Every structure is written in structure tokens, then in C-alpha cells.
Amino acid sequence: MSDIFERIDKAKVEVSRLKGEIEKVRSEKADRTMSEVTAEKSLKAVKKPPVVRLRRTLKGHFGKVYAMNWSFDSQSIVSASQDGKLIIWDAWSMSKTNLIPLRSSWVMTCAFEQTQGNLVACGGLDNLCSIFNIAQSPTMRASQELAAHDGYISCCRFIDEGHIITASGDSSCIRWDIETGEVLNTFSDHTGDVMSVAISPVDKNMFVSGSVDATARLWDIRTTKCVQTHVGHESDINCVDFFPDGNSFGTGSDDSSCRLFDLRCYNQVNSFNNEKILCGITSVAFSKSGRVLFAGYDDFNTIAWDTLDSASVPAFYLPVHENRVSCLGVSPKGDALCTGSWDTLLKVWA
Is pTM beyond 0.85 here? Predict the structure, then answer.
């Protein structure tokens, strides 16, 4: 028995030593701030105010809008609401192309498949991820229901037509085979509810997750292991989104800050907060170039941050809703921003 305790003590010392080496390497890479780097460049400022106007207001939900996601062609939007409906919108004409009744009105997330656009998914407090084939009309029932999580489904994102990643309140993420409904991999290093996931835009084998344990983790599907753990937030991480080049990702938290983490230097490279902002962030999304980070807030505002700025002053505000901004997303083409709110509306800006 004493031999076991001795081995445990040695292992603890070795773990402490390895952590120290990792922190030493990370601190060496974090040699300058973003503002110091950009001060050496002649960068064009983000235009204030921007030439961004409200182009569409999508009315049709009768309950709080909780989630939205663009289609791959930047024309359609799927939205999920507490009224128990998924609505597929034509963002150009503002018409509803499909309305899907849900078994549970307590929906928290929805997603569009990004290669063919024939599938949408949703999940919520029923602990199920429901897949719908919108190419088959009318769409009244789920073509597949994925059941394995022991907690609510907080987020889902398609990898391709055959696979999807879900995040849950049971502190895990799962990769599924959509056709068979089987669990392919479970990712369970988080110590709190996982609130958001984002698939890498350049490598579908990588995804990042954000959790109420205040950490963001990078996962490799091929090894099913967490390959990076990013810390810095002081409260729940509610949302994550990859930078367009796949080398960085942004986060939004209940600590009233957004942060930018870089995978190459394994460090936080910028933080976006202001002493006047006291509420949490519900959603984040990057512009097509990555120069602007849009964030939705509990105080009804959408704020745009210049990712290359000193990050204490927002680039501009979009005071677009009369209630909490619960979701937002930039179209894949980068020419429009959609925001969804508890005021039951979705608004498209361009």
C-alpha cells in the first residue's frame, strides 16, 4: 500500500513539473499585446459609424427566439423558438419556406447542414438532438432522434451530412453517425455544462467547446482527446466561434468579456470588455475577414469589436432589439449579420 502512495506522490510531482514547463513556454510566446503589435502597422480603422443598415425583420415566431443558423448558400436561415417551432426563412424575400413543429417547446439550439443544406437539427431540455430532412416536404417528423446525453442539449453543429457534434449539460460532447443514430465518440474532459461548440473551418477533425467551468477546450476527433485547454475567463463561457482562418477562436462569457485565443501560441491574445458593460454575452461571430467580432448581450445590444484594437472601446453598437439578444451569426458569404432575440424577432443587417 505504501508503494502505491509513493507512486502517486511521484506522479503528482511529475504533473506539476510538466505544468510548469507548459506555462513557461506559453509565457515566452506571450511577449507582446495585440495593441503593441498593431501599433507597428498602418492599419485602416473600422469605419464609425459603419455602412450597415437593417435590411430585413423576420416576424413569425410567437415566443422567445433562442437560436439561429445560416445555410451554406447564405440565403436561408433556421431559427428555433420557445413557441415550439423551427422556421426556415428565405432571408432575401422574408418568406417562410418551412415550419417544423417540435415535440418539445424547450428548444435551445438549432443548426443547418453546411454542404448540401438538406438537413437541420435542434435540441434542448428533452435531452435529444432531432434531425429533420427539409428536402422532404412537408417536414412534420424528425428523420432521426439522437439519444445518449444525460442532460440538456445546449448546442449542435453539423460536421457534414453524415455526422454531427452535440454539446450538453452533462459536461460532455458527442459525435454522432446521423444515419444509424450511433454514438461514435464522447468527449468528456469538461467539469461543467458544455454550452457551445464550433467546428474548425479548415479542418473538420477539430472543434472547440466552451463550458461553465470557464474553460474552452480544443478537441481532435481522430484521437478523441482534448489537445488544448484555454483559461482566462472568470465565469461561464456561453459561446465560441472560430476565426475564419481556423488558427484562433473567440469566446463570450458571463464575466462581461469576449476573448480571442490563438491556437499557435496557446494563449489569449486579446480581451474585449468595457467598464460600462456589466452583463453577460450570449453569442459571438466573426466577420468574413475576422477584423470584427460581433457579440450579443443580455442588455439588448449587439456590439462590434475591432479584433486588432486595444479592445477597451467598441468599434460600434447595433441597438437592434427590445429584449435580450440570444443569438447571432454572420452569413458564410460574409455579406450579412442576423440577430435573434427574446423579443421574438430576427433582424438581418448588411
Answer: yes
